[in-house]
C-alpha cells in the first residue's frame, strides 16, 4: 500500500481515538486523501464553541510536502474570520507554506494533521487583532478600540455563521423559522444497503454538531446577552485597518435579538428529535431491523450486568421500545450523591451508532457536567461507541468523580462550572451545597 496512505490513515485514527474534544476529522472510505476537519472555537475567546470546518487535501508526496488546507466556514466566501483565515478560505500558516515564517517554522515530515489543526486553533485567540502582521504590538488607544470592535463582530459572526447557519442547514430550517412541510431532509432508511455512497452528501459532523449544540447552548445564550449589552440592533460592524472593503473582510450588522430567536428554534428542533427516533424505533422493532435487534440484545446484557453489580441501579425500556432506555441511578454511598435517586433517559436513533444517543437526566440535579435542561456531558470510549455499556459507564464515571479535572470543552453548565473551578474554596463549598440539595430533592421528585 502507498506509504502516504498508511501515514494519513494512522493520523486520522489517532485523532479520532484521542481525548481532545475540540477536534474532529473524517473522510470517505474510498478517498482518504480528502479529509474534513472540525475545530471547536476555544473557551474565553470570541470564537468560543464555534464550529469551524476545514477541507484538507493530502498530496501523493505527503508527508514530504504539507497538505492543502481550505477553510469552509466563510459564509460562502463572504466572511474573513481571522487575519490569517481569509474569506476565500485560504489559511495563512508558515507550516503550510502559505505564509513566510521564521527559520524552523516551515513544514517538515515530523509534523502532521494534528499539528496543523492545533496551529489553526491557536489562531482563534482572545485577541485575534494581533495576528495581523504589523499589529502584533499595536497598543495605542485607536488599536485598543479596534481590538474590542473586532472581538465584538467575530463573536456575532461565530454564532451566526459557524453555529446557527450550520445547525439550520442540518435541521432543514430557514433563517425565518421551521421548514415548510416536506422540506426537511430525510436521513434515509438505515437498512438500505443499495445506496451509492458517492451520491450522498458527506456530512460527517452532523450528529456531533447537534450534540455539541446541546452541550454549549447555555454558553451561546450567554454570548448573546454579552453581545446585547455591548452593541445595538442594526449597528454596523467596524472595519479593521487590515480588511479589504467588500472582499476580504467581515462586514455586517449586529442583531443579537435575531440570533437568540434562531438559537431557540434550533434548540426546539433538536429537542424534538428523540421523540421522532422513538416512533421510528417502534417501526424498526416491528420489522426486526439490525439496530433494533442489537439494542434489544444489549439491553438484556445491561440488565444482567446491573443484577451482578454492587449498586441497585436498574433499567427498563419505555413502552417496550429498545430505542428508549430509562435508567434509575442510585447515588453511591460516601459520595456527594449518597442518598440520591436519579432517572436518566437514553434515546437511540435508528441510525445508531452513526448517530449517538441523546442522554438526559429527567431528575433535576445541579452538576457541572449536566446542563440545566438535563443534557449530560460525557465521552464514551471512542473505540466502543456502539457499546451501550460504554456510554452508561462513562455517565456513571463522571457522576462519581470526586476530583474532576477542569476541561473547558465540557462546560455545559456555566454556573456550576464557575462555582466549582472558577472561584475559591468558598465557591466550591457553595457548589457542593447546591449539589447536595439537589440530591436530597431527588428522592422527593422521583416518580412513583
UniProtKB/TrEMBL annotation:
SMART domains: UBCc (SM00212). Residues 3-163, 290-444 form the UBC core domain. SUPFAM superfamilies: UBC-like. Residues 175-200, 420-448 are annotated as: Disordered. The keyword Mitochondrion does not apply. Transmembrane segments: none annotated. Keywords: Ubl conjugation pathway. Residues 438-448 have a biased composition (Polar residues). Residues 184-197 have a biased composition (Acidic residues). PANTHER family: UBIQUITIN-CONJUGATING ENZYME E2. This is UBC core domain-containing protein. It comes from Fusarium ambrosium.
Amino acid at each position: 500500500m502507498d506509504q502516504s496512505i498508511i501515514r494519513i490513515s494512522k493520523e486520522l485514527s489517532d485523532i479520532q481515538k484521542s481525548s481532545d474534544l475540540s477536534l474532529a476529522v473524517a473522510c470517505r472510505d474510498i478517498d482518504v486523501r480528502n479529509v474534513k476537519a472540525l475545530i471547536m472555537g476555544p473557551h474565553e475567546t470570541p470564537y468560543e464553541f464555534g464550529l469551524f470546518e476545514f477541507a484538507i487535501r493530502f498530496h501523493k508526496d505527503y508527508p514530504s510536502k504539507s497538505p492543502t488546507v481550505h477553510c469552509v466556514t466563510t459564509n460562502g466566501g463572504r466572511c474573513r474570520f481571522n487575519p490569517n483565515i481569509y474569506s476565500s478560505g485560504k489559511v495563512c500558516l508558515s507550516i503550510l507554506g502559505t505564509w513566510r515564517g521564521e527559520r524552523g517554522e516551515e513544514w517538515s515530515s515530523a509534523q502532521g494533521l494534528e499539528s496543523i489543526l492545533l496551529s489553526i486553533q491557536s489562531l482563534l485567540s482572545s485577541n485575534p487583532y494581533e495576528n495581523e502582521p504589523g499589529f502584533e504590538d499595536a497598543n495605542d488607544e485607536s488599536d485598543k478600540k479596534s481590538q474590542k470592535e473586532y472581538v465584538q463582530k467575530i463573536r456575532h459572526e461565530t454564532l451566526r455563521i459557524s453555529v446557527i447557519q450550520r445547525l439550520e442547514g442540518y435541521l432543514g430550517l430557514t433563517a425565518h423559522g421551521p421548514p415548510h412541510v416536506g422540506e426537511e431532509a430525510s436521513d434515509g432508511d438505515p437498512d438500505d444497503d443499495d445506496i451509492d455512497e458517492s451520491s450522498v452528501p458527506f456530512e460527517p459532523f452532523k450528529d456531533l454538531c447537534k450534540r455539541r449544540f446541546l452541550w454549549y447552548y447555555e454558553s451561546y445564550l450567554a454570548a448573546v446577552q454579552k453581545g446585547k449589552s455591548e452593541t445595538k440592533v442594526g449597528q454596523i460592524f467596524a472595519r479593521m485597518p487590515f480588511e479589504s472593503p467588500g472582499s476580504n473582510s467581515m462586514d455586517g450588522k449586529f442583531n443579537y435579538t435575531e440570533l437568540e430567536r434562531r438559537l431557540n428554534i434550533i434548540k426546539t428542533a433538536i429537542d424534538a428529535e428523540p421523540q421522532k427516533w422513538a416512533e421510528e424505533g417502534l417501526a424498526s422493532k416491528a420489522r426486526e431491523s439490525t439496530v433494533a435487534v442489537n439494542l434489544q440484545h444489549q439491553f438484556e446484557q445491561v440488565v444482567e450486568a446491573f443484577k451482578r453489580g454492587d449498586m441497585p441501579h436498574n433499567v427498563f425500556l419505555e413502552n417496550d421500545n429498545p430505542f428508549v432506555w430509562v435508567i434509575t441511578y442510585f447515588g453511591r454511598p460516601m459520595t456527594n450523591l449518597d442518598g440520591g435517586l436519579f432517572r436518566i433517559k437514553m434515546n437511540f436513533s435508528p441510525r445508531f451508532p452513526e448517530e449517538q444517543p441523546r442522554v438526559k437526566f429527567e431528575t433535576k440535579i445541579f452538576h457541572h457536567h449536566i446542563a440545566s435542561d438535563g443534557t449530560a456531558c460525557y465521552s464514551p470510549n471512542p473505540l466502543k461507541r456502539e457499546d451501550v455499556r460504554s456510554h452508561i459507564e462513562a455517565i456513571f464515571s463522571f457522576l462519581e468523580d470526586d476530583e474532576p479535572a477542569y476541561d473547558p470543552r465540557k462546560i455545559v453548565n456555566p454556573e456550576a462550572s464557575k462555582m466549582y473551578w472558577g472561584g475559591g474554596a468558598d465557591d466550591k463549598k457553595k457548589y457542593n451545597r447546591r449539589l447536595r440539595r439537589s440530591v436530597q430533592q431527588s428522592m422527593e421528585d422521583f416518580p412513583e
